[in-house]
Specification:
Layout: H1 7-25, E1 45-47, H2 53-66, E2 75-91, E3 96-111, E4 116-131, H3 135-168
Parallel strand pairs: 1-2
Antiparallel strand pairs: 2-3, 3-4
Helix pairs in contact: 2-3
Amino acid sequence: MLSFSHPKLSRRTLLISLAALSLSACGFTPVLKQGSTARGLQGQIRFNLIDSRDGFLLLDKLETRLGAPASSARYAAKVDLMIDESRLTLTAATSVERITLNGTAMVSIVDTATDSEVFNGKLRQTTSYTSTGETAQTVASKREAHAKLVTSLADQIVMRLNSSAESWAK
């Protein structure tokens, strides 16, 4: 039987070691390790500008995560962003509504050297906010919900691009 002089520290160390061992046994490798294909995407994708507040925020998040495009970026990306609202009135007397935002991002990446599409995907995300009789509060909630939705879509795009880079980014 194992005996630990510091039970929490030793058990924690043992559990972390076992977790690391199991991950290495299944072939797990970090996507962004030094020299990986996904790491090579940094600064190599030029995204289109979507003419809206949400589009600007999406572009900012993508460039923050994937790097600002170099002048000789190898890939051109087109993102179509659509955000739909659906309303549910909770109480008619106080005009409280729950608004659900359904966001969809259609992403297409073209290799500029061959002019061929190398990646395309459709990503979805949902969030919501509450609309009340207080205009300032509702506007702030709406902006926060849009920012949360767009940030989540950007994270999904980056994750999908990084995880699939081995198959299309050579």
